[in-house]
Design brief:
homodimer, alpha/beta, Arc Repressor Mutant, subunit A, Aspartate Aminotransferase, domain 2, 3 domains, 8-stranded mixed β-sheet, 4-stranded antiparallel β-sheet, 16 helices, about 40% helix, about 15% strand
């Protein structure tokens, strides 16, 4: 039995036709309607086929005209069929320096408008409630300060996290959750548990620069797998990589609301990804930091939901959804739990109990769910306003992602632009952006910008986006 | 010019005499008075010579009779002249398992009297003041929860730590201090900054088991250097090791109130140790967690004070002196600062601000110094009571250290006893002790017990010590 989903079988069929020259560059691609008839498939399958081919970079949609075959290796997207060349460790060392030079330049400047933050504006967080909960917890529990916290964290919080995970069909056992200092420590522990320095780890390309910094600090070799805003990591490219000569010890994936792509992997892809990794003995590390920010009527699944071998490591954090000042993440490491617990113990012992208890008291109430719903709605509005303004002010040929949640837009400028040049110019007038370069070591995103939409839309933000647009349009 | 201190030159002179057989086992050693005359040295130098020889295990003091030459390699002390055999990585792996099996057995039991804790009893800590400071900070500072803390920690706390360090003649620069999740994370970062897996790191033998666990978790090879309750690490043994074939990348030393020995290194030894390590390009990592608990009229120096090359890494913590529930440590890494900052950023980002600010508010007042003075006095009383009771109840031949501060006594039972057997037997009746085995991987401390004196002396404690004594005396 062929377990490859139908849409992917058909996408492969078209890929072969393009590779062999049966379908040529510039040629019009069969319409959705035609494909539905020809292959007797549903509308959604036909759409999925086109998206898949778009992700591979072989198809381009022209407004009011249809889909056309295009050169597959356009540098405007992650190289689709050819894998990125494996980077050697020496070449890799340096992303931290690049990232921190960007961060340090930002710290030296006086920032008026910050588009580089992935956080929401302070007023969107339930800070008063949290503060009240903390005050109450602090007054009520006299043993908070006189007892050292347990390595795995407070059981009250672990219970709530396990219960909440059910909303994403994720089965976590409270006793096997370890509370960490943010998702950063969680990912760190996951990597330390399953790799040794010099091992190779794969990530999505682009991906959150913080992950690249962690990998560099642990002396891990990194391979970047192309990913798209539509469906996340490119599974064909990943499969090719896993079949290749290099042993991939682990793969870090942000399946729901990828940073910076905003992608949400379809369920079929999630299932296939978990299966692929299990089959190649590659430990899948899931970063679910943004999952709670997805705006959807149907609950999403996590990768963990599809894990049948208890070998996936699930990491998440409250840092983005609840409050930037609360450094609480967690890790559920399946069969690696004992090793992760040992590493947590020797790395930093247990986290302080106060914020764990205060947060538990809040997350256990229905008002937490209400807060999340409100937050998601607000963010959707903010993303829409920002996206419209970017399209209004930025040069023709700019494209903006349309994620189903979160605070981030991934903006592709026409490829002659340099986002690093824009970063430096904008900084001079107090506008902070995240240049695409820091999201990969493969130098493929030099004309991308990540724009944070955490703040309510305002004349000041509008003005700042207009300024960015003017900077781009001015001949340099 | 011979830079070896006079007392050590003379100790070496006697060691040669013992080795060559000029002085024989069982023979009486020259009296202090005789040595003063013979070598024209002061009383303190003569005493120092005897202590040095005691530390090497070649001299034993018999009450009311004087000092006698003894077999140098008695297993009752760290092997003195012969170095511990280098342990290979495979042999080493396992200390964590041993330690955690001890810790887990403790957690399963119902503990009535806990002698295994290095903390003070809750009522000795200024918990009310801390709680009040936290409540005030939380009410006053609305941005605590809405801003992510900076990687290096809050500058208010770093300023106070730098200012307080002056009391131990230690020059720290606030801007180059990084606040950590306890000393555990500080040591972790120090080791990650200067070693790679497979490197060799030296430690004192015995030493705090937590350090051994950290080393194991980082896949570091460990060499143990004999240390004594009088003067800490044996510098001759260390020198031999540094001159040996194995490259020692780093050395972790607890110079003031060693855990478990209670030793305080004399200034001359501190200076020499720093010089030795600098000369062999071995990074010295100083753990000063217990320094504030030393009861002394003259301020102590740290190793950092003697560092002329900015290559020593200083680590400390408020966890034992201020409150077990406050997980704040710090690291001042000298020339390794940038690397440590990077590792802290990628390991766990900045620590939460609340406890940093609350603690700063307290540590900046004179009442903090008053609290420390009171705490030291109380602990001295508690140690005295405990020590007397141990000598009253434990078998003849038991010896107890007499540290100048802190909460810990290191108890040497006659060598036919097994502290691990005692641990298990005591646990059955709810008494918790730390068996000597977990403080080394060299199986030299199986008849030692670490006893915590953090709690005020009471009939219950007296009774528990009596029970331990009876267990030991009962024929097994």
């Amino acid at each position: 039995m062929n377990t490859t989903p139908l849409y992917r079988q058909l996408a492969n069929h078209y890929l072969d036709a393009i590779r062999s020259g049966t379908l040529k560059t510039g040629e019009r691609f069969p319409s959705i309607r035609l494909m539905m008839e020809k292959h007797a498939v549903s509308l959604s399958t036909a759409v999925q086929i086109c998206r898949e081919l778009e992700d591979y970079g072989v198809l381009e949609a022209r407004p009011r005209s249809g889909n056309y075959i295009r050169q597959p290796d356009t540098p405007a997207r992650p190289a689709p069929l050819a894998l990125p060349p494996p980077l050697d460790a020496e070449a890799y060392v340096g992303i931290h320096q690049q990232v921190s030079s960007v961060l340090k330049a930002s710290q030296r400047a006086t920032i008026k408008v910050n588009f580089a933050s992935a956080y929401c504006a302070p007023q969107l967080y339930p800070l008063k409630t949290l503060q009240d909960n903390m005050l109450r917890t602090l007054r009520q529990d006299p043993h908070l300060l006189d007892t050292a916290g347990s390595t795995c964290g407070h059981i009250a919080l672990r219970n709530i996290l396990a219960r909440r995970a059910l909303t994403t069909k994720t089965h976590l056992t409270a006793e096997r959750i370890v509370i960490t200092n943010g998702a950063t420590e969680a990912i760190n522990l996951a990597l330390r548990a399953v790799t040794r320095p010099g091992d190779t780890v794969a990530v999505e390309s682009p991906t959150f620069y913080g992950l690249l910094q962690i990998l560099e600090s642990l002396n891990l070799r990194v391979l970047e797998v192309p990913a798209s805003p539509h469906s996340g990591i490119n599974l064909l490219a990943l499969e090719q990589l896993l079949l290749g000569p290099e042993r991939i010890k682990a793969l870090i994936v942000i399946p729901n609301l990828h940073n910076p792509l905003g992608s949400i992997m379809p369920d079929a892809n999630k299932a296939r990804l978990v299966q692929l990794c299990a089959g190649h003995d590659t430990v899948l590390i899931e970063d679910d930091t943004y999952g709670d920010l997805v705006e959807t009527e149907h609950p999403l699944s996590t990768l963990k939901h599809w894990d049948r071998t208890d070998s996936l490591i699930y990491c998440a954090s409250l840092n983005k959804t609840l409050a930037p000042g609360v450094r609480l993440g967690w890790i559920s490491a399946g069969k690696w739990h004992e090793r992760v617990e040992m590493l947590k113990h020797t790395q930093s012992h247990g986290c302080e109990a106060l914020s764990q208890l205060a947060v538990s008291a809040y997350m256990g109430t229905p008002s937490y769910e209400r807060y999340l719903r409100r937050l998601r709605k607000t963010l959707t509005l903010q993303r829409q306003h920002m996206s419209e303004a970017i399209q209004r002010y930025f040069p023709q040929g700019t494209s903006v992602t349309n994620p189903r949640g979160g605070t981030l837009l991934w903006v592709e400028l026409p490829r002659e632009y340099s986002s690093m040049a824009l970063f430096h110019e904008a900084l001079k007038v107090g506008i902070l952006i995240s240049p695409g370069d820091i999201f990969s070591n493969a130098r493929r995103f030099g004309h991308f910008v990540r724009i944070g939409c955490g703040a309510p839309y305002s004349p000041r933000i509008d003005e700042a986006l207009r300024t960015l647009g003017q900077m781009l349009k001015r001949p340099s």
